[in-house]
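Example 3.2
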Amino acid sequence: MRTFSYRTAPTSLKLTVTAWLLLAVVGLGVAALQIYVRTGLTPSGALLHYRGDEATLHYPKSFAEMVEITHAHAFTMPLVAFVLSAALVATSAPEWLKRVVVFALFAGMALELGVPWLVRYGPRWTVHLFLLAGALVLGGLLVAVAVPLYEMWWSPEETGVTTAHPQVPEAQRLRRAR
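Structure, written as tokens:
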């Protein structure tokens, strides 16, 4: 049985996966832009956004607002991490890289869900965990998009022989069957 390869996949599948990957980049880019608009991508901006500041009349996020934000993201973020991971796992990248990226995507997205709660109700230093979450998600996103796209559109064509399942010539296969 021949193993799956993006290199030899039908063009319709390549177009589907490519479109999803590129739109995922756009979607996460818009999310990053929204974070920038709200916090300036600074620890002090994030503290102001979640904890508020009486001097500037910024109100802290209420428990209900925190639940609303988390609810909206608790379903979509794991799904995005799953599909990005699945796109990468279907490549011929080394297993260690796949494991690192899958971990980075899910850990980063889990932090993105939990750190706002820590910033709002926990110690102030937890705001710096946003940097870790962003690095994990951005790093995972770049690899999970770049590797499949490279294999689909720019990698040399396969010769039909893979190291995992080398093809056996027809005559040799028939001799083994006897």
